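Suppose a colleague, Dr. K., hands you the sequence of a protein chain of 199 amino acids and asks what its three-dimensional shape might be. Before reaching for any lab equipment, you can write down a predicted structure in token form. Begin with the sequence itself:
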Amino acid sequence: MKKLTFLIISFIIILSGFLVIWFGVFNVSAKEKHWDITTKMLEIIRERSIEVRAYDLQIPNLSDPTMISNGAKNFDAMCVQCHLSPLTKPTELNLGLYPQPPIFYKEKHSRHNDKNIFWTIKNGLKLTGMPAWGDFHTDEQIWEMVAFLKQINGISKSEYRQLVGKGGHTHKAGFEHNNDNKAHRHDSDHNDSHGKHKH
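The predicted structure, expressed as tokens, is then:
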């Protein structure tokens, strides 16, 4: 009798789940916010997943000025459309994503340690819009971005300009970009209009 009751309850749960999916009850729109309990559950899943996988990583010297400057250049080339900088105004991408990307120069994420930040940059995050940069950048280049992110909170416009310099973008050797198969840096002039565009 207990076994039959268990089977009936299991069937009802499975059927209910199928009907919810089939009739499109769950709204996947980025304009529809998660329930609070869903957000909390996803946060716990995300944080524990990252923590477990980043546990054994070895942290280099993140106070090296060269690492910080190199990280600033890659951040400026790769990340500001979503995470912004002191020199950029909110972009369509930053405003349109859900969950909305954190603005690191304004917000300090003390719960995210260096290992977790590295793992996230390298592997990306599902259902967030966060890319996996590890296919295109070496571990050293990713650690450089971690080094910069440790310095970015509260950074001024002048400090940011100084670190970024003329800008630039590095990739790992073997990544093909503009028909160039070598690790390289793309230099470009940097100005306050970064992130702006016209229609």
